[in-house]
UniProtKB/TrEMBL annotation:
<feature type="compositionally biased region" description="Basic and acidic residues">
    <location>
        <begin position="61"/>
        <end position="78"/>
    </location>
</feature>
<feature type="region of interest" description="Disordered">
    <location>
        <begin position="46"/>
        <end position="78"/>
    </location>
</feature>
<dbReference type="InterPro" id="IPR007423">
    <property type="entry name" value="Sel_put"/>
</dbReference>
<protein>
    <submittedName>
        <fullName>Uncharacterized short protein YbdD, DUF466 family</fullName>
    </submittedName>
</protein>
<dbReference type="Pfam" id="PF04328">
    <property type="entry name" value="Sel_put"/>
</dbReference>
Amino acid sequence: MPTAGVTTVPAAVLDALRRAGRGLAWYTRGLVREDAYERYVAHLRATHPDPDHPVPTPRQFWREQADRQDDHPEGRCC
């Protein structure tokens, strides 16, 4: 029995909103380079699949990124 003043949202609209939200989250992660570690690991596994080439932990990766930016500060405003 419907309640007065309450509307339901069609499933297709909810699906479209979910897809848009996931797309926005994906775009934002790429924009702020939050996905850099995952992309680096995928690159390492594709180009250096041997076990002698270890994959760094996220902490090691970001430390190396920060060190590299400190050593080569071009392209930064601050």
